[in-house]
Amino acid sequence: MKIIVPATSANIGPGFDSVGVAVSKYLIIEVLGKVISGLLSTI
């Protein structure tokens, strides 16, 4: 399973706690394993 989440930057200037910017960086999490009886068993 692979999860990809875009990076963001918040708290920018006068828009503190209300303005954010998406950047072209990503957090990529990859889980390797096999499914046994409906449960994920990690390696």
Main attributes?
single chain; 43 residues; mainly beta; two-stranded antiparallel ribbon
- The total count of strands amounts to 4
Following the backbone from N to C, one meets helices and strands in this order, namely: EEEE
Radius of gyration: 17 Å
What does the largest sheet look like?
A: 2 strands, antiparallel
> What is the number of domains?
1
Shape: rod-shaped
The low-confidence runs, each spanning 5 or more residues with pLDDT under 50, are none
Mean pLDDT: 71
Helical region count?
0
Oligomerization category of the chains in this entry? single chain
In whole angstroms, the N-to-C terminal distance is 12 Å
- Widest β-sheet, arrangement of strands: 1-2
What is the helix fraction of residues, given as a range? under 10%
Portion in beta strands = over 45%
Class per helix and strand makeup: mainly beta
